[in-house]
Write a structure and sequence with these properties.
By secondary structure, the chain is mainly beta. The chain has three helices and 20 strands.
Length: 338
Amino acid sequence: MNNFTQMSFSSSGIFSRLFLFVIGFGVVSTCLAEGHADLQITNIVQSPGNPVTPGDTVSYTLTIQNSSTGTIAALGVILIASADEGRTVGPFSSATPDCSSADLGAAFCPTISAGQSTQYTFTWQPPEGQHNIVFTTDCEGNCSGGSSQSITTNVIQTSPTVDQVKTISGNLQRGTSGATLEPFVINALDTAGDPVEGVSIDWEILPTNGGTLLQLTTRTDANGQSSNTLTLETSDRLVVKATVNPNNTPGNSQEGGNNLSAVHLNGPASVAFVVNGGIAEQPGFSRNQRSVAKAMDSMCIALAELGEGRSAEQNDLWRTCQRLAADEQVWIYWPTKK
């Protein structure tokens, strides 16, 4: 429930004490305040609550009480206006069958018997921004007047939330210094698995001197995809990391775009691409096979670092490492020391 403020006034009739100035969809009301009002707006419930997403239909349910102790039946009109000078609200539709729609800021509703209360609901689609809305009741007959209540509706463009980033292509490439690799392509998805457009993606190389990225920051397209390319400055193993920018600040290689924030629920979502990886980083291994592959990687790296100091037995093992590296089905590279 949103907070609202209350004002009251008295009236001896809709047309004798209330003047409506209709400008577009806005209504300005004037009245003379005197005494306690019989017709009170006791509550306003806004649904959905703040913040509201642009395009949402918002409903306002008013509870109106006729506090008269006599037998007077009251209520003739409910006025809807902006509390901000020069601004308008609406048009409003009535969700209560017995009330007319407030197309021009005034809805005519049936009477409420003395001592009774009734609820009336009005809806509209507010544009982006803050809207301070005033609902005013006026009675007819011998009642002592109506009252006003105000409520604030905040319409905000909410930010998409990236739940995960997936690799589409470009992982497990290999190349030598000076080579430009195929694009690294990622896909940013929300919690429902749908693509998120306009997300800022930061790219980095580990180690940082391993090459040059075409762009430091990219943005996802309508399919939630974004890509980047790398020119190698080494033949050693490296990692290219793509991370959702939690602040959505543009990098120095790309400006503009839909600057929507996209923050993972448990921190920025990211994904890594391996370049010139070892045997253990290839896909399709069982747990035991990967354990053996890790041991092979460690052994081949150690043999590469020995260079010409390898023994005859170590050279036999080193040739096995080289055969594995030359196998096009196993993308693998160990630095060679001469």
